[in-house]
Amino acid sequence: MRQWARLVLAVWLCVAAGAAAGCGTSRAGEPADGRIRAVATTGMVADLVRNVGGGRVAVTALMGPGVDPHLFKASEGDMARLQQAQIVFYNGLHLEGRMGDILEKMARDKPTVAVAERIPEELLLMAEDGVPDPHVWFDVSLWMLAVDIVRDSLIELDPAGRSVYEQNAAVYREELAELDRYARAQLNTVPAGRRVLVTAHDAFGYFGRAYGIEVRGLQGISTATEYGLADLRQLVDLLVERQIKAVFIESSVPRSSVEALVEGAAARGHAVAIGGELFSDALGAEGTPEGTYAGMIRHNVDTIVAALR
Ligand SMILES: [Zn+2]
Predict the structure, then answer these.
(1) In angstroms, what is the span from residue 43 Cα to ligand 1's centroid?
(2) Residue 65 Rama label (left phi>0; alpha psi -120 to 50; beta)
(3) Given 1.10.443.10, 3.40.50.1980, 3.40.50.10470, 3.40.50.720, which CATH number is that of 189-308?
(4) Same CATH fold assignment for domains 3-183 and 189-308
(5) What is the per-residue pLDDT for 274?
(6) Which of 303, 304, 293 is nearest to 138 (CA)?
(7) Where is the signal peptide (predicted)?
(8) Between the N and C ends of the chain, which has fewer C-beta atoms within 10 Å?
């Protein structure tokens, strides 16, 4: 093929494949606009990197609204995005249970940061089998530690941006400190006897520990393990004995499991309402308040408080 024909073909392929394929690259691994190209797994991690990275970092989230990270498998497009990233952020602690090998492979080529795994171990919750609970974002004060981890990782990759990352991290930490106070104050308005949060899976352990609410999930800390009839019966017993008013569905878990709880309680003569939808392992739709981490936490707090108070 002649030189000019090759060029035309290359340009055409770029237009067809779009920016995600890495066209318009000025230097290897750098977007044409000079921003750092970061890929994050969950929406929560992506939002964190966006807040700290500001205008210096272009962030792509692999998992959209309603996507369950425990069950998520990377597509070919996701693999391409990971390969073209200069830095990869993920939650870790096996939240992304089916991406372990891929993330390990990425770590050989580029900074690949598991934010939850850099939180001091003594602050983590352990499940019954000694496995750490990965849902650290539900304790806002723990997520503030993740802000520092992202800041330091970006500074290491892009030292010229140090002052920007430090400034952004400080501002965002303030916002999260305010959010932490809000959550605590709101949940304190629920009478102590009614502070029981029943959901589809055990995502809210850190939330319960931080804000003083007992949490019970039908499935364990991973949705990869199915629940059994014994789990269902135990939770129905709890609903009936404690006269719990409401249970909650999760945006990233099918609602049928929670509906089974409502039916089970009804069969025993106890009416339980569905208190609303919580965002547990995924953010809400982009452009809505729940499409950000802070909005997601606020939505959950308000929904829980309204249903249980
Ligand atoms: Zn989960």
Answers:
(1) 13
(2) beta
(3) 3.40.50.1980
(4) yes
(5) 97
(6) 293
(7) 1-21
(8) N
The percent of residues in the chain predicted with pLDDT above 90, rounded, is 87
pLDDT of residue 9: 47
pLDDT tens track for 188-226: 999 999 999 999 999 999 999 999 999 999 999 999 989
User: From the CB of residue 176, how many other CB atoms can be counted at a distance below 10 Å?
Assistant: 21
pLDDT by residue (tens digit) across 286-306? Answer: 999 999 999 999 999 999 999
Tell me how far the alpha carbon of residue 76 lies from the centroid of ligand 1, in angstroms.
24
Interval between CA 278 and ligand 1 midpoint (Å) = 12
CATH placement of domain 3-183? 3.40.50.1980
**What is the CA(280)–ligand 1 centre distance, in A?**
7
Smallest CA-to-CA distance from 110 within 81, 87, 80 is with: 87
Instruction: Give 153 Cα–ligand 1 centroid separation in angstroms.
Output: 25
Residue 225 CA to ligand 1 centre (angstroms): 11
